[in-house]
Amino acid sequence: MKALASAALLIALTGCGSSIAASPSPASTPATPTATATATEWKIDPAFNATDLAWIELMIPMDDQLLRVLGMAEQQAADPAVRAFATQVAAGHRAEHARFVALRTRSGLPVRNPHEGHDMPGMMTEPEIVALGKSTEQAFDPLFEKNLKEHLDQSIVLARSITTDGKDAETKQLAASIMTSRAAQLKQLAAL
Questions:
Q1: Which interval of the chain is the signal sequence (predicted)?
Q2: How far apart are CA 125 and CA 143, in angstroms?
């Protein structure tokens, strides 16, 4: 199971063009920026391994996108319980997002999104987000709940691989926290 989770993370990341995940040893070799990064090289903190770095680079856009979708749910959901749940989840994700940004800064990663425009598990495509935004109240709730469940499920899979294959202690701690919070959110979502 451990190997499967790690393979899923690396496939998700390397399949999306993350040069960090594909790097043999970012701790020992300065990574070369891609076209989306600055023209200068950056130094990666050796406390982080490639799995840590790839996860950070994936979770920031995943959280960015989910916060956007949660904002829609706070305004458009027909069920007041769904709106309240979206507000609760958004508060936790904003705090989590800040932790990811701090980890990215500490790690030495550049500010970039190597996953922009990719169709990945746990992330809606831009056309799906637009369609969700145009949904009527009755159609909105089940579509939102389906996509939120996919995000929560995928976040657990990715975080599990960090707890086993990550290197940085703070990153591993965040991953363990995400596994716990996402499991609780899945139970709450199922009860809506």
A1: 1-21
A2: 13
Measured between alpha carbons, how far is residue 110 from residues 104, 162, 173 in Å? 7, 20, 22
For residue 163, CA distances in Å to 6, 101, 119, 170 come to 10, 19, 25, 10
Alpha-carbon distance 25 to 6, whole Å? 17
- State which fold the 2-18+45-191 domain adopts: Ferritin (1.20.1260)
Q: How far apart are CA 64 and CA 81, in angstroms?
A: 23
For residue range 67-119, list pLDDT tens digits in order.
999 999 999 999 999 999 999 999 999 999 999 999 999 999 999 877 676 66
Find the angle CA(116)-CA(34)-CA(65) to the nearest 5 degrees. 20
Could you tell me the residue ranges of all domains in the chain? 2-18+45-191
